[in-house]
User: Fold this.
Amino acid sequence: MNRKQFLILLILVLVVGGGGLLIYQRNNRSWENSAGNLGGKLLPGLPINDIAAITIKNGSSELHLARTENLWRVHERGNYPANFGQISEWLIKLSDLKIAQSQEVGPSQLGRFALLPPGPATNTGTEVEFANASGKVVNSLLLGKKHMKKPASPQAQSMGMGDEGWPDGRYVQVGGVTTTLAVVSDPLENAEPKPEQWLNKDFLTVEKPAAIAVDFPEATNSWKLTRASETNDWQLAAAGAKEKIDSTKISGVTSPLSSTSFSDVLPPETAPVAAGLTNVTRLTIGTLDGFTYIAQIGQKKNEDYPVTFTITATLAPPLTGTNSAAVASQARQKTLTEKLAREQAYQKWTYLLPTYTIDPILKHRADLLVTETNAATATPPATDK
Assistant:
């Protein structure tokens, strides 16, 4: 090798080595910056008290939660009340999330982490936007694929954890940044644009029923039960000479809607035919407090019944005066008046009630009566001694 060739080789070594050094230093600074964020909050200073709207997008689905007059509502369900406790807890969780890992990635690598913008393409993420009362977006978050914790042993795999393990975190990006990727130690599994998951499931409650009637499209199946007080036995209205209630068969119908929840609601503009409210069965419940609940029950679809409600009340006037009985009566009157106003607000929507709530009520008249076999068993024939 002559002197000229040696100098050319030396220059090439210096160029390649210098370039490698620059790349190393750049990557090192990147990881140093990332390491500086480790343990820090993902959304520092998130103004949770100022947030008045939340939008969640995934694929072609969107969910809009909005706070109006201090009440959170679900836009996709006709502005039905949202679960304030769930939203509040979720915002607090997000404001406290800390970065477990962080790194810089190129735009071409985002698909690997399902962090492409929401849309019809594959490998897209879930976008969450937070806005204030004026509609200004104060922060946003893009949620990618879940970070999986690998099983520690073959025994763990055999216990149903599988080869991939279980989610222990999630890849995320903040504020539309396209190069900084972080991992948080929470999979954030409820961050989905599914309206039914965000509804307030606190619902009407029927207390002290005194009359229960079910009117079927086939009139011979209809029935009505009544009682004079909470301690009286239930009686079958307009009972025939051979009709006698079987107390073991009516236990499932004498506390209707006492602790009611629902699967979902339909927007108020949903047409009765589309909602399945044709050829309905009517449930009427009167209570000792003067409330009347009328439920129109449609045709079962999958595991739910569509149901609408009409709620009225004729409340007895409270006692007058200032003695303890009068004060208690007045307080009770106030409670019932507030209950009526609260429950009448539920009349706008059609509810999808699960079969386990409705099926026990929809018994035919014959299903409530003592059968000849049961009667013979209950009263054995006399024998000669």
User: Anything to note?
Assistant: The chain has seven helices and 17 strands.
